[in-house]
């Protein structure tokens, strides 16, 4: 049985300063995507997400829309593979945040001045397209784009272990994950994906994951 995975960006947020909620418009869009996915399903839909508020809220809205359209939905919670890239600062895994204070707050005893001394993070805070800069970085302190793409391919391939009647899995994740996968597929950085857009994967029993880009939300 061939498994399918829709790997989608979370819904609209007003900023990425902190673990902010999805906007009402973003939730409405996610609900509508859920309804459209239900129309394409010939069995239950499995919905998973990253661990952030914006991905969990989006996943819940997609699940709600699919149910409203009559689909059976299995909400399987957080999938660790869908997290943002792992970056390390002073021996601590840090989230991709947008200020020295936000980085320092993740590390006991670390100050904003300490963050500013570390080249990668000082540069990260000054470039206009931070995610694009990370995608093209040859040696970030942690995951590079190739490592994230390999993680997602491994996660997707594991869906072949399932021998059930699920129509497909929907995974809600983040822009850096999708841009890393797009680089792997297309050979170039596609820039910021639209809200709820991303990639579709087909996973046959031999685990040969086939990814292609979705320019718009499904």
Order of helices and strands: EHEHEEEHHHHHEHEE
- How many angstroms does the end-to-end distance come to? 22 Å
Rounded to an integer, what's the Rg over CA atoms? 18 Å
Q: Could you tell me the number of beta strands?
A: 8
Which strand-content bin applies to the residues? 15-25%
Q: Outline, from the CA principal axes?
A: globular
Please count the helical segments.
Answer: 8
User: What's the overall average pLDDT, rounded?
Assistant: 96
**Contiguous uncertain segments of 5+ residues:** none
Strand order of the largest sheet: 3-2-6-1-7-8
Can you tell me the CATH topology of the largest domain? Rossmann fold
Q: Major β-sheet, in short?
A: 6 strands, mixed
Tell me the name of the CATH class of the largest domain. Alpha Beta
Class computed from helices, strands and strand pairing:
alpha/beta
| CATH architecture heading of the largest domain | 3-Layer(aba) Sandwich
What is the CATH superfamily label of the largest domain?
Answer: Phosphoglycerate mutase-like
Q: Helical amount among residues, as a percent range?
A: 25-40%
Number of domains: 2
């Amino acid at each position: 049985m061939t498994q399918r995975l829709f790997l989608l960006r979370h819904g609209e947020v007003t900023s990425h300063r902190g673990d902010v909620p999805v906007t009402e418009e973003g939730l409405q869009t996610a609900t509508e995507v859920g309804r459209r996915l239900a129309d394409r399903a010939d069995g239950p839909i499995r919905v998973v997400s990253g661990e952030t508020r914006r991905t969990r809220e989006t996943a819940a809205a997609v699940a709600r829309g699919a149910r409203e359209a009559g689909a059976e939905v299995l909400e399987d919670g957080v999938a660790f593979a869908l997290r943002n890239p792992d970056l390390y600062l002073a021996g601590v895994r840090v989230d991709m945040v947008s200020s020295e204070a936000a980085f320092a707050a993740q590390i006991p005893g670390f100050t904003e001045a300490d963050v500013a001394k570390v080249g990668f993070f000082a540069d990260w805070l000054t470039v206009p397209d931070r995610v694009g800069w990370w995608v093209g970085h040859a040696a970030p302190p942690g995951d590079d784009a190739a490592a994230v793409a390999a993680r997602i391919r491994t996660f997707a391939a594991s869906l072949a272990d399932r021998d059930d009647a699920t129509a497909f899995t929907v995974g809600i994740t983040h822009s850096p994950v999708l841009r890393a996968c797009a680089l792997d597929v297309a050979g170039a950085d596609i820039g910021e994906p639209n809200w709820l857009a991303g990639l579709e994967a087909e996973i046959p029993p031999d685990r040969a994951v086939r990814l292609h880009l979705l320019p718009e939300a499904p």
